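Okay, is this right?
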Amino acid sequence: MSIFQKIFSYLGIGLIIFLLARIGIFAVHYQNFSSLTFEEVLLGFFYGLRFDLASLQVFVGIPLLLMALPFRWCNSLWWHGLLSLLVFLLLVAEGSVLIGDVVYFGYVKRHLTNELLFIGKDIKYLISEIAANPGYFMIWLALVCLALFYWLKLTKIKVKTVRMHWLKFILFLVFVVITGRGGIGMKPLAIVHAYSSGSSSFGNLVLNGVFSASHSSLSVTVQRQPISESQIIETLYFPHDFWQKQFPLAQKNESIPGKSYNLVILFVESLTPRYIDSFGGNDYKITPNLDRLSAKGWKFNRFFSHGQRSIEGAQSVLTGMPSILGLPTIANLSSNYSKIAVLAEQNGTSTIFVNSTLRESFLAQAIAASTGFSEYYGKEDMPLLLDYLPEEKDRNLGWDYETLMFSLEKINNRKTSFLAFINLSTDHTPFPKLNAPFNRHPHHATGEGGYLNSLHYTDWAIGEFFNKAKNEHWFENTIFVITADHVLAHFQNGGLLERFRIPLIFYAPKLLKPRIIETVSSQLDLMPTFIDFMGLDAEYTALGTSLLRKQESFALVREGSLVGIITDRAYLKHSLSRRMESGKLVDNVPDSYFDKLEARLLAWDRVAYDLTRKNRWAP
């Protein structure tokens, strides 16, 4: 047996362990997978191999590489013996996690996430669980001892000299890297890729507990102040039976005949009110089209992003779920959550996601699939239409004009009602150098002049899109939403409100009369609003409320490791252990008001955290 045959024997044993765990999940919790067809089950097992290999290589890849080193002294029995024992212990650890995952799945209907961090920090609890179940522990220990006996026999098998050892070692190194990151794509494999079909059942079959736990545990553990369930009910005015419901925040929307519309969302990178004259009043004169659209539509003057990263903005808008301290974003979240495109498709509305960047940039393709979009396109799918500067034309972040014209073509092919989400990223750093007339300001790849020129170009592209769209048959029955993922982070020095305030425009000249709305709201309110606009029959969960019926004026935000709440009277920022910053927005705000703000902020955070961690957020 050569060293590589032995190594692949170890990997084969590891894959068998993961296969048995997947069979166990499927067999013990079959009711959670009953919606899958036989072909989908087989496909789930096949796709799961990719996640299993990635889980194995992340932990045992390095010791296996050390075993395969092409040096003479690496052929010694002690070298192989020590590394083989390390691989065995790692496989025992992974197998133990998988066993726990099978059991845990029955309680929360999802795989393990960062619960291991909490257990690892409470050794006394772990010992008490073992003491309470000595029979199971003894069975596990016996199986480990039996496995060790046969493992040592395999370890003692002498290895033969390998021909072309260096070449085979390099090939094996490439194999470990590729399988460890889950493929050769731009981004490493993430939890969100398991849910790319839009089906939670299929995603849970594909995923394994080691992968979900290791990726979810990348989130930093957060200490929260103790708050009782009764306090939360009293603070947030929830019904007394709130915690008795399986999905306490779930709500149902019923369609009204004749009140369903197409929806087009323009999600513009770093669109900042300061530079839009109709929002900022600073007379930059570079956004005439956005100014015109805001004057003829619904203009929200107190609208805020939920976070400061694109993934947090996309998560809020497409799922209604906040970014929660101590838990991963949807890129690595295995809990169930509502998905706007899934809800639309269930109501016969076709969905399309068009991204100006490369398909796999920022995990956009995986996020689009996991939230249910049936069609997805990226920069690779769009022909260049304009004559850009040679050094700029192939930029990975793409071009907004081409993206909008491509989107228009795809929308025109719709034969049913539709939801189109269009992500525009020309305004992302590094800002491109542009031809006239989009070069009025001195160019800088990361400076304000570069941003102003890019925004001027994006505004023009949006204007061209509407000039063409208004002549299409679907235009009069379509509501357009224009907003941002977050505020521009560069060269900004404003306070908390300026770091989160973004534009929001609803435009539908035949459906919506011009209005200026001063209610404080956020991206978390958009998914419920979209459901109302499209007239969907849907059961869903969102932390926000539809802007068509929103009454309470507040926004929840996240700034790194801090959370905040903004109302029409004041704002407050918190670390979840102590109050960090607060300020009045109007006169005559008593100190007691900030105590109420703090209580509401902590209550909402705890509700979102507990329901998500226990997989009670959404069906």
User: Anything to note?
Assistant: Residues 77-108 form the longest helix (32 residues). The chain has a mean pLDDT of 92. The longest strand covers residues 262-268. Residues 388 and 435 are 7 Å apart (CA to CA).
